[in-house]
Amino acid sequence: MSRIRSARTGPAPGLAPAPSRRRHPRGQSVVEFALILPVFLLLLLITVDFGRLFFTTIQLTNAAREGANYAATNPTDTVNIEARVLAEANAQAQRGQGAITVATACANSFGTTIGCSAATLGTAASGNTIRVSAHESFSFLTLFMNGFFGGSLPVESSASAVVLGYAPSTGSNPGSCSAPVASFVMIISDKKVTVNPSASTPNSGICNISGYNWDWGDGSNDVGNATGAVHTYASNVNYTITLTVTNQGGAGTNIQIAYLGGGGPVVCAKPVAKFDYSQGSGLNSKKFSFFDKSTVVDQVNCPITSWLWDFGDTANNDNLGNATNAIHTYGTSNSHTVTLTVTNAGGTATYSHSQ
Q: CA 155: distance to chain centroid?
């Protein structure tokens, strides 16, 4: 009986094993990383670009707000409005920003466009506004994004503010409103001062105060409202705070000292009221110029803060004015008694003269 020999499963005698054909896993990872890296870098650069765009938008918004804050009391001063916008923008500049252009536009309380030169004139209603717009072009670092937006992306932001500091009309009748009277109280806590101007008048009706402007005496200013404001100082020294309130009839101011450095309030003596006047050319001229000559003992700590003129026109008592000096033209009558009332922290004094 023949025997069947089993076939060998291994290599023939004297032959080496065949080499393996499997791909090395480390080499495969290197290839995959080389393919992914450019995509990852592109996405990273696009993310950085949009981050720069985001901060540019914030910067432009802050710049427009800074311009509107200044424009509220200086609506026709386009040079300094633009300077305020650019100063704020330069402080936070981002790479890729183009030149900033600034535009202003004014409107009345009904939203109708008006000239900014007329925005502070006395009218029958307050509410005139000014809008400051800032515009620039933004360039992306990523060529793909820059090409997608045509080389640059226009970025614009704007801010609006109520126009303050109403001046009387130039006609014979300045309107139905007299200038407001400013008043405020303050609470001092270390370097923080809290002020409340709610005692200022008028605080209701058509002649209601439309603006509250604070000069803190340390080089900073704020636009506030009837509910008050809070300001924190850098040093414990004495500061002079000035409140200016406005309506369509004019403006009124109140000045007080915040004694952060101690010493307490100065006891003020009330002023001595006095004025001179001159008549226009010709003996029969009805135009008179009045010049305040009032005095105070302490001009630094106790200055006069309010001047009130009564020109003796019983039929036109809206001709009262809160100004240091005044000009007034009378009607057909020949005799009038003019009274000046001045006020400081020490009290009120009056002086009258007939002519």
A: 21
